[in-house]
Amino acid sequence: MSTDIAPGALKGRTLLISGGSRGIGQAIAVAAARLGANVTVLAKTDRPHPTLPGTVHTAVEAIEEAGGRGLAVVGDVRDEESVAEAVRRTVEVFGAIDICVNNASALALQSSEDLPVKKFDLMQQIQLRGTFLLTRAALPYLRRSGSAHILSLAPPLNLSPKWLGAHPAYTTAKYGMTLLTLGWAAEYAQAGVRANTLWPESTIATSAVRNLLGGEAAMRKARDPQIMADAAVRVLTASPAPTGRTFLDVEVLREAGTADLSGYGAPDGIEYDIFVDEPTSRRVD
Q1: Banded pLDDT at 47 (limits 50, 70, 90)
Q2: Chief localization class (predicted)?
């Protein structure tokens, strides 16, 4: 990958992202906007949530403050009509779709016997159905782009018993996103559509980590969402453009020459993310 991103590297290109009203999704949208991209955000959050910051509208404000053009579409990535409307409005306003980012996701880590079926269904519908619907609807425009990219926030396929047995329902949903994306890389290779996944090495300081994975103590072991945003725009602007790869954020940044990751937070040392094995040299048996 190239080590430097030229100013305006995404100028004139249009990015469509699911679930970008806060957290990692918003960070990626804003990072792309700083490089000149047009960004459509498809998300359900039309009004402020009592405990979660940000809406689809505040996300677009941040995109425009960063120098890009933004479009808010209130809708559900699971709903075919919502997705079709997001694609239609994106093309109507910006004239094209060059990048599709599958960011929307649901998290439930209960064991198979404890997980409510409605949570199982929610994860499969958002991660699998939503990723498929959004990408499928965008593909006719991606094929015309000349610089098309599908980027899914999904993990490497770690098939160790540790991860297969931890929370099979969530694992199935996230690995399904990865398999779809690698499948598109192969299916559309001749059409010039690149497709890759990106996943964080560490937990990321989002509301999900605070609310579901351990509160403020967990946040002190989580890196800032900006690390995923910086890695994402490097993948999206890389030359030659990669495809069919499953990246960790730190791999992307280190390959680009960023050795010091201390600026991304985690003052108490990182907590390795789900599906990421801690290096053997750091383990204490």
Answers
A1: confident
A2: other
